[in-house]
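Can't attach files on this board, so I'm pasting raw text. These are the components:
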Amino acid sequence: MGMGHRGSLCLAVGLGVAFALGAAPRAHGQEAGGAPTTTAAAAPSAAAAALAPLPVPATLTIEDAPNDDGKRFVVRWPSVEGATNAFEYEVQIAPTKDGPWHPVKRVFADTGLARDLDIDYGRAAASLEGHGVIASPLAFYPSELFLLAAVGPADVARAREASAEAGASPKALLAAFDAKSIVLAKARAESKPVEEAWARLAALAAAADDTPPAADGELEQLRTTLLDAMDGVCSRREGLIARDLGATAVEGARKVFSALEIKLTHELEGHLRSGYFGSDERLARIVLDRAWFARLRTHATDPADTRTATCAVIAEGRAVENWFDWRKDNNFVLMLVVGGLVLVFIARARKNPDMYLRRIGGLDAVDEALGRATEMGKPVLFVHGLREMKDVSTIAAVNILGEISKHVARFDSRLLCATYDPIVLGVSQETVREGFTAAGRPDAYNEDDVFLAGADQFSYVAAIDGIMMRQRPAANFYCGYFYAESLVLAETGAMSGAIQIAATDSFTQLPFFVTTCDYTLMGEELYAASAYLSRDPLLLGSLKGQDYAKALMIVLLVGLTLLATLGIEAAAEVVKVY
Amino acid sequence: MLLKRTIPVMIAFITGAWFAIQFFVPSAMSAQTERWASNWYKILAGFAAILGLYSLCHLHWSRIRRRVPGWGYSVLVYFGLALTVFMGLIGEVQKGAALLTKQPDALRKVAEIQSYESTYLYSSGYNWVFDYIYTPSSATMFSLLAFFIASAAYRTFRARSWQAAVLLIAAVIVMFGQVPIAAVISQWIPDAADWLMMYPNMAAKRGIMLGVSLGVVATALRIIFGIERAYLGGD
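---
Top answer:
Structure tokens for the assembled complex are below.
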């Protein structure tokens, strides 16, 4: 975590009322001598004199926002005694100490507390004191702005003048534009004629023997094309200034650009060559990898009261990329504990393969269902859920399919597998083929038996219901994550007289499967199924570890719930998710 | 063995381990790798769509060729596919023709409108297929759910055991608690319905979710460490 530069202390508040007595309608504050400054409207002298000066905090700091990708920082200041919502703080940031200053946020003096930044700080927010506001320079200096700030109308005018003096020399003409190659490169990337014009000019300037000489008027035409391109970029810039950003932001960007010209040019050239613009991460780092400044102003809440006071301290700091999200520390510890338990039991299973495992009725019935299909001479239907291959429930379903395909091949039966997603189709085809091969029956595998039934929810249902009613499979397996189609599928399957086994982690659909299927594997049983079916000691060891992890979780939850009920709030924080 | 086992298991280990860690790393580089992986998946999905189309066409062509019972439906699949592709292409051709024949300013406007309006302007046939064939068919399938719920509820709510009786009573309270007349009869009914949903139902739901989460972790670990290889077709 990067810590912001701590500025010097503010001096005491005090000059505000005196300034308020000035003759001008609104007197400007001073910052000389590091004293907080206060301004006020030309209120009646007596009333203004009676007003107390606005309070400003003694210190102001910028510190890196924790647990983020380095795009934000936190401006913090201590609470002022007696703070009420009668006045509010305004936080401003700038790329240099001299501005331009951009308002980030206004908060009432009794709000905007740092401890409320729990979304950013996690549990650590509770121990924070004072006020805090999150700020990101990217809000005011989007990286595209730097591209646009790189050239202005004055630059175009200079290029126009220089190119006019180039006369008939392609080299001189190229040199006139070369300084603005950034803009030209950008224009090249957006326009084929400009790209061709640039290439032609470069070829003429190189004066290779095989380059045909420029025709009459060609150089002038090239010049016009390139200048028009520069004008186009400038128009976009002006449009952006008018629409979104304002001239101040562009000027600020130009200041940053000037300070880092070499780096920017180098970076921009690279980006322009690779064709990336806008919110590219590396361009964003140009905005962020530098010191930023913050200042704080106090305003009266009452619109009629125009007093302001400025904290004399200008804070300096920067945003830094973080490499660990401390808000997820509880998750990390849990992952290590659960993972460790699973791995320990896998290791134990290597030494002692005879492990006791509770029986799962639905999985014990798999052989019964497959045997029934074999006896009846009817196929077995395996139906995937609607989720994609990247979901663990689909991976678990494919694992079950692998085991079932081996059993089906051994029983010399037929397996139909309906898929919803093309990637799941490809993986399922390969899994079933390997399953048949492992069972010694590669010849029995038919690629058409693993098919894409539909890529839309109810088209999928229609196709599978049709198969159920026409081919009357003897056993139906529903594995994976299902939505509203679950009952339509399972009820049709029940009507067709098939023995049905469902395995899903979709708890909203569980009641429908429980109602209509002969056996239902609920929740984690879906993930345990392939291990249970394969009887591989290592896989069974992982199930054992999973069960112990669950026992641990139950103990932990019950214990923490009791502690939280007894009023120990920290107990609830332990398992809080951010 | 190297191509079919070792390399896939290594890929699963490296990517699985990295993305398990990536969840805890907030840096920009970490987020970038996630975006890359997501883009790779989209690219793969694009190519896999061709595989899916091939599978669909091959399956139904085999059925037509072998004249299996119900092969007429397979003809309908081809007809529907051809019709949708034709209508979609017609719209695109219309849009292309407009781009070629209209003035540059008009073209820019077409490009700016993009999306909804221009889609409707130049693909009315495709939209007709979508609005008047696909959507009603889909809605018909969905509406079957109402009848299936009724038949499933009848079968489940027959109070043949004490568990089924408890289920029946709870279901009646929850269902009745959702309609306004229940509150008119007694405020106790919607309150009881809310209590059932908030406590016993929520407790069971969270229990299942807890088990699912641990199952996901265990499955992920089995895959990352190459213990679970069923997705590669077993040992």
